[in-house]
């Protein structure tokens, strides 16, 4: 076990992952050969003063709603898989409701008593560490990526992908927004049973196509069978923002019929108002 700790500690020290904020996206299956317990993995970063920010998305709170405004290019807001009427969103995400797609590390972070979970019914973040409270509490249903606004002021913040590619990297959605794309609008019930709007990301299946434009920012390392890709957060976002503006098709997935890609590349949702009578 000491050898396993040494390997992880060596990565933390070599790539300056200590005492900073890490946007972490992981698949733990192969990483578990290095660190068999996800809580041990988290605690090692805790010992180094790192703050871990992970997606803690849950898809149980969305409601189907047709607003009076005609919202165009909204990624085909179809009825959610949860056909039962969801309970009002109280601001609390049960870790048990976090999608398995987020991975065991995200769930274990969200389960900790000293962690924070963002105020978003669907695309919440969870955070653990000295900077987590300030970052996570910035999130709202409408300003889903507000935590990333804070990280843009942190020169040492990093994106860490472990055995996943850019299709799992939530910051790419933030770069889309920074490039001028409007995020998709979905709906939830607040604590007073009123239907309210929230903003969410779109299709991410094509995001790995952005990698060639980020290669000079990428640090690549291997621990046993696990592959780590590490990027400086602010430079990553600035580079991708420019690339998405210059090459909008770079984020398109391989499905020609994907309405979310089509609508997002066209700029995302906008409101269409009914014609106004100007006659006096």
Strand percentage lies at 15-25%
What gyration radius follows from the Cα positions, in whole Å?
A: 20 Å
Kindly report the spatial arrangement of strands forming the biggest sheet: 4-5-2-1-6-10-9
What is the oligomeric state here? single chain
Apparent shape = globular
Q: Major sheet: size, sense and barrel closure?
A: 7 strands, mixed
pLDDT averaged over residues: 91
Given the helix and strand composition, which structural class is it?
Answer: alpha+beta
The total count of strands amounts to 11
**How helix-rich are the residues, as a percent range?**
25-40%
Report the span from N to C terminus.
Answer: 82 Å
Q: What pattern of helices and strands is seen along the backbone?
A: HEHHEEHEEHHEHEEEEHHE
Per DSSP, the total helix count is 9
**Which residues form runs of ≥5 with pLDDT under 50?**
none
Structural notes for this entry:
It is a single chain. The protein is built from 9 helices and 11 strands. It has 280 residues and is of the alpha+beta class. α3 crosses α4 and α7 packs across α8. It is globular, with a radius of gyration of 20 Å.
Q: Helices and strands in order, then pairings?
A:
Elements: H1 2-14, E1 21-26, H2 28-31, H3 38-47, E2 51-55, E3 70-72, H4 104-111, E4 116-117, E5 125-128, H5 132-136, H6 146-151, E6 158-162, H7 171-178, E7 184-189, E8 195-200, E9 219-223, E10 226-232, H8 233-246, H9 259-265, E11 270-272
Parallel strand pairs: 1-2, 1-6
Antiparallel strand pairs: 2-5, 3-11, 4-5, 6-10, 7-8, 9-10
Helix pairs in contact: 3-4, 7-8
């Amino acid at each position: 076990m000491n050898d396993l700790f040494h390997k992880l500690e060596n990565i933390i020290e070599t790539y300056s992952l200590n005492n900073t904020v890490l946007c972490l996206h992981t698949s733990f299956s192969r990483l578990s050969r290095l660190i068999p317990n996800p809580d041990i993995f988290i605690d090692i970063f805790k010992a180094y003063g790192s703050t871990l920010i992970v997606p803690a998305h849950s898809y149980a709170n969305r409601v189907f709603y047709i607003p009076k405004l005609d919202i165009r290019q909204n990624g085909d807001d179809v009825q959610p898989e949860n056909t039962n009427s969801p309970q009002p969103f109280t601001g609390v995400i049960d870790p048990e409701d976090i999608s398995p797609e987020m991975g065991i590390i995200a769930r274990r972070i969200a389960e900790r008593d000293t962690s924070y979970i963002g105020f978003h019914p669907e695309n919440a973040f969870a955070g653990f560490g000295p900077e987590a409270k300030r970052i996570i509490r910035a999130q709202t249903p409408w300003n889903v990526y507000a935590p990333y606004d804070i990280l843009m002021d942190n020169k040492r913040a990093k994106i860490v992908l472990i055995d996943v590619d850019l299709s799992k990297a939530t910051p790419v959605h933030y770069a889309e927004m920074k490039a001028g794309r409007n995020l998709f609008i979905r709906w939830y019930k607040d604590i007073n049973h009123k239907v309210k709007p929230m903003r969410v990301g779109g299709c991410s299946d094509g995001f790995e196509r952005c990698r060639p434009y980020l290669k000079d920012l990428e640090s690549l390392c291997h621990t046993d069978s696990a592959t780590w890709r590490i990027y400086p957060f602010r430079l990553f976002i600035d580079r991708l923002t420019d690339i998405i503006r210059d090459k909008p098709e770079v984020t398109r997935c391989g499905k020609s019929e994907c309405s979310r890609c089509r609508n997002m590349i066209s700029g995302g949702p906008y409101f269409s108002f009914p014609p106004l009578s100007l006659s006096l």
